[in-house]
Design goal:
Blueprint lengths: L11 H5 L1 E3 L6 E3 L3 E6 L5 E3 L10 E4 L2 H9 L2 H6 L9 H22 L3 E3 L1 H9 L3 E6 L5 H13 L5 E3 L4 H8 L6 E5 L2 H13 L8 H6 L16
Parallel strand pairs: 7-8
Antiparallel strand pairs: 1-2, 3-4, 3-5, 6-9, 7-9
Helix pairs in contact: 4-7, 4-8, 5-6
Length: 229
């Protein structure tokens, strides 16, 4: 039997983008982890942007892992000093990710990488430019059904998120009564996807009722976990 060829050594750049998960001890890409920093009072603080000073403490981006790290004192063990991790640390991460994602939508809007409004979103879907559909939680079911039906028929299937109300989207995007939004495919959309994937470890990306009401035609690819379309 021929021995398997050894894996090529990782480059320095590849290794610098990985860190060890406190819970499992596994080395993972940082895109799949949450960085925590230590505040001046010894409190464990989520650092989603990775900019706070000091040594980073990394945990897999899912609710169970963050709750386990806080409950079992793994932050203190890793830092080798007593630290305080609030019991609601996973909820803090979820809220911060939601805020970060919503702020990113506002930046994308100003950069011309996002459109909203029923007709503009339909046009983005039909042209294959829509990377993500962001539907308001309180939008009318009929309009959402039409948008999602067009997405299922499109050659390029955008992914779906339903995380904010129309009021929240309107405030973030500087519009009125924003219900249907399309994040155009591109680098900004790809970066947004990384945070969405982290958020999916803490909460569903769409209400369960949307998935139950969505009936894909035969041959339509199954959506990735949490994407709902």
């Amino acid at each position: 039997m021929t021995a398997a060829a050894p894996s090529p050594p990782r480059t320095h750049a590849e290794a610098s983008r990985e860190s060890r998960d406190l819970v499992t001890g596994q080395v993972r890409p940082r895109e799949s982890l949450i960085r925590f920093a230590v505040g001046p009072g010894g409190e464990v603080t989520p650092d989603l942007a990775g900019r706070l000073p000091g040594r980073g403490l990394w945990v897999a981006a899912d609710r169970s892992s963050v709750e386990t790290a806080a409950r079992r004192g793994l932050f203190s063990r890793a830092a080798r000093t007593p630290l305080r991790a609030d019991p609601d640390l996973a909820d803090q991460v979820e809220r911060l990710l939601l805020r970060r994602l919503l702020d990113s939508l506002g930046l994308a809007r100003r950069a011309g990488e996002l459109v909203f409004g029923f007709e503009k979103v339909l046009a983005a879907i039909s042209s294959g430019r829509a990377g993500w559909l962001i539907e308001a939680l309180d939008g009318a079911e009929d309009g959402r059904r039409k948008i999602l039906g067009a997405a299922r028929r499109a050659a390029a299937h955008p992914r779906l998120a339903g995380l904010w109300t129309g009021e929240e989207l309107s405030l973030a995007l500087g519009g009125e009564n924003v219900i249907h939004t399309a994040f155009l495919a591109g680098r900004a959309s790809d970066r947004w996807t990384l945070d969405v994937q982290r958020l999916s470890g803490f909460r569903p990306l769409v209400p369960e009722s949307w998935i139950e009401a969505s009936s894909s035609p035969p041959g339509t690819p199954e959506p990735a976990k949490g994407e709902g379309l």
